[in-house]
TrEMBL record:
Organism: Ceratopteris richardii (Triangle waterfern)
Pfam families: ABA_WDS (PF02496)
Chain residue ranges for the region called Disordered: 1-41, 88-109
Top-level taxon of origin: Eukaryota
InterPro entries referenced in this protein's UniProt entry, alphabetically: ABA_WDS (IPR003496)
Transmembrane domains' residue ranges: none
Name used for this protein in its record: Uncharacterized protein
Similarity annotation: Belongs to the abscisic acid and water stress-induced protein family.
Compositionally biased spans, kind Basic and acidic residues: 19-32, 88-100
PANTHER family hit by this protein: ABSCISIC STRESS-RIPENING PROTEIN 5 (PTHR33801)
């Protein structure tokens, strides 16, 4: 093990270990940290959009409950927009982490 606080060992594949800078490891962890919320937000956006379309169809199909279905449609649309915005934000955060890692590698090489 390395006693220095600036370097860590990272296993890239079984049986191989290389010295990796702690900042680079932190960037990889942060990139992975943004991946899951991005995928969850994308799924939520798709589901909310599908529900909004379903409610729009129901409003046409059942005119006596049209107001209720319209309200649900608008709420689902707002949720879809919010989830899509969150997914886009997380995508930009991941991209920022990747760019930081690329710059770090360019400085080394």
């Amino acid at each position: 093990m390395v006693s220095s606080s600036h370097a860590l060992y990272s296993k890239l594949s079984p049986g191989t270990a290389t010295k990796v800078d702690k900042h680079e490891t932190d960037l990889k962890v942060e990139e992975r940290k943004h991946k899951h919320p991005q995928h969850a937000a994308e799924s939520c956006g798709l589901a909310a959009g599908a529900f909004a379309l379903h409610e729009k169809h129901e409003a046409k199909k059942h005119p006596e409950n049209r107001h209720t279905h319209k309200v649900r449609e608008h709420v689902a649309t707002a949720v879809a927009i919010g989830a899509t915005s969150l997914a886009l934000h997380e995508k930009h955060e991941r991209k920022h982490c990747k760019d930081a890692m690329k710059k770090k590698h360019q400085k080394k090489g």
